[in-house]
Each structure stands twice: as C-alpha cells, then as structure tokens.
Amino acid sequence: MEDTLLTDWSRAQFALTAMYHWLFVPLTLGLSFIIAIMETIYVKTGNPEWKKITKFWMTLFAINFAIGLATGIIMEFEFGTNWSNYSWIVGDIFGAPLAIEGIMAFFMESTFFAVMFFGWDKVSKKMHLLSTWLVAIGSNLSALWILVANGWMQHPVGMVFNPDTARFEMESFWDVLFNPTAYSKFLHTIGSGYVMGSLFVVGISAWYLLKNRDVVRAKKSIVVGATFGLVTSFFLILSGDESAYSVAQHQPTKLAAMEGLYHGHARAGIVAVGQLNSEKEIGDEKEEFVWSIEIPQALSFLGFQDFNAFVPGINDLVYGNETQGIESAQSKIDKGKIAISALKSYKEAKRLNDTQKAEKALKTFRHYEPYFGYGYLQDPKEIIPPVAMSFYSFHLMVGLGSWFLVLFFLVLYFAMLGKLDDKKMLLHAALWSIPLGYIAGEAGWVVAEVGRQPWAIQGMLPVGMASSQISTTAVQTTFWLFAIIFTVLLIAEVRIMTKQIKLGMEEH
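^ thats the sequence. predicted structure below, dont judge the formating
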C-alpha cells in the first residue's frame, strides 16, 4: 500500500512539473520561427516597421523563454530524485539524448539568444538574423533530443539487457535516434508548438484590432501568424496520422483506450464524437458508448493503412484472441514471472560459481526476456490505461486542432480581403483560442503519457518498479511546494506579458 501511494505521488509530481513545463515550451517552439520570419522580412525589405514588430514579439518570446527554463530543469532533476530506479536501469540509454540536448542544443539556443536579444545595432543585420534563426533551430533541436528519449520509452529499441548488472545498455545509438516512434512524436510535438505560436500571435494581434491600437502592425503580424499557422496545421494533421500509425503498431492498448474500443473487429471506424458508458467494465457485455458518431473503417486505415484490417480491442488484449494471434495478458504475466525467476537463479548461480546452472538459467531468461516487465504485474487488466481520460483527451485534442485550422483559414482569408476589422466575432474567437491552444497541447500529452500506463518503458518496466524508495511525505511536501512555485511563475509570466502587450508595439 505504501509503495503504491509513493508511486502515485511521484507520478502526480512529475505530471505537475511536465504540464506546467508544457505551458512554456510550445510558445518557445512556435514563436521562435515566427520571429525569425518577421526579421527576415525586415532584412529583405528594410522597412523599419518590421523591425518594431519583430522586437515586440521577441520581447514576449524572451519572457516566456526565461521563465520556462525553471520547470524544465526541475523536471530533469526529478529523474534522479523520484525515479532513481528508472535512471539506474536505463540511464545508459535515456541519459545519452538528454546529455546531447544540454551540450549541443540548449547551449546553442542560449548563446545565440544573447546575440538575438541584446545584439540589435551591435552586430550586422545578417549576423543578427542568423542568430535569430539559430535560436529557433536550437529550440527545436532541444525538443528533438528530449523526444528521442521519450520516444524510446514509448517504443524501446537499440538496447540489450545485461543480467549481471540488471540494466538496459545501449546497443545501437542510431536505432534509438531513428526510432520511428521518436521521429513521429517529434514532428507532431513541434507541429503543435508551431500552431500554438501562431495562435498566440494571431490572438494578441486580434486584441489590438479590437482595441483599435497598432492596427497596421497588428495586421502585418496576423498575416504572418495565420499563414504560418495554416501551413503548420496541415503539417500537424499529417504528423498526427504518422503518430497514430506508430501507436497502432507498438502500443495497441493505447490505441484501444483512445478510441474506447473494447471488442476488436475488422473494418473498425473512428468515433468522431461520443459519450463513453461509465458503467462499462473490461470483459462485460455492456455497450461501449451511450451515443457516438462514427467514421466507418477509418480506424483500420489510420492504424494499419488497410480499410479492412482487424483492430484489437481492450478485451482482445486482456484475454487474448487466438483467431487473430493475440496472446492474453495473463500468459505474458506468467512468462514474465518465469523470466524474473530465471534471472534470480542466474544471479544466485553466479554467486556460487555454478557455471552450468548459470548458463541454463540465462538461457531460460533470454527465452522469456520479452515478457520480463509483465512479470511485475498482478492483474491482466493492469495493462489497460485509464480509458475515459485517454478517450476524451484524444478527442478534445483532435477537435480543437480542427478548429484551429478553420480559424487560421478564416483569419487569413478576411485579412487578404481587407475585411478583418469588421469581423469582431472572429477576432474575439481568435483571442479566446489562445487558451484553447494550451488545452489542446496538454490533452495531447495526457494521451501520450497516460495512454502508455502502466509502463515507464513500454512492455519492459512498470511504473511501480521505476520509482525511488524515498519517503511518501517528502514527495507530497515537494509536490505542493512545486505547485506553489510553478503557479507563481505562471502568474508572473502572465502579468509581465500582459503589461508588455498593454504598452503596445511602439512602447514595449
């Protein structure tokens, strides 16, 4: 009971840190490129208005960048404080991309950030422009290496388990780097950041138009923001399709939870919108939905690029489906326990210098090694993540993403016609879409991380085996301490940004 409570509080603390961190990161990813585009226009045209526009958005970027650093640093330290078992078992693999991120990408963006922010009129226009682009590239390289690490947790590749040290060790760095789950996750994540940056620029510019302030600069900003947002929205859809395909191939339980699919079948459709039956349990015969609207055969095609493909449901994955060659979770748990027992026998035989027994135990372990992580589970139903949270988060993310695409199109369309000033309702919608962008981003991470429970490393290491053996009280105390600190930082950012926005593009 105490171990479960400790794990739950450790998860809650990491989730708190990650969700606050993601309030800052997407704006950094998206706004950095928008600023670089604006400054490129300034350098190409020589129009001083574009310089003022660039400097205004650069100021808001700097505020967000500076405050966002704190949450990211704390999150990385939590791997050592709250998840030391995880860090010990996979540190050789997980630590490599994080180290590269710090040495290469973070220092790159930090170094050129100083030139970008303080170098106006101190370096040449081209040098300053290069610095701005390098900050944008560096920010996105940081995301690359972090998401390579996260992608490996979702789909572990390029490693081998060392039974003597009980650790996973990297066998192929290139397999880890070019992990299909990692790059699809990277593309989709930076795409969401680009859309968030665009929503921010369009929304704040819409506020200026509603207040009839800085009208010309606001319109110029809106055109850049909406154009960038429209293009990257299509990119987000394409990368989302690739990400969903990766989930279907490597995380079938996540896919089933995302769609609330209990009974697998061929020619499966996607639920466009629906209400889950809260009384539905794994293995019973109750209806999955109270009501739903489905797109026929879309899930089969999305997950397997075949309209007629069989998509396994929750019941298939828990109880097995011999017809489709799906092994039951209980079978995997039983094999996992054999692997754990064989590993213990191997280590005991090594301690006693019994070579023959050690070789036999190691052979047994290697045979059942793919099921090793399952041996720490007690109930077959544990392999299924929280269905309601996964389902509603996924559909909220998709629904909002579709709205953003429509919003950017309408804003750009009326801006090109010169009629945007008259579209007060659309301008208000653009302004209030800023918080919706953050909600969509957070929902995406809920799908990604809650959807892979109970695993810290998919199929290899349950979350309960990854946490540190520390006091639950210590984790609870730091949870509330971080909650207060992060909330203060968020309030500080909003107040500072609001002050700068109210000053206007001329007086920032």
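The CA atoms of residues 153 and 457 lie 5 Å apart.
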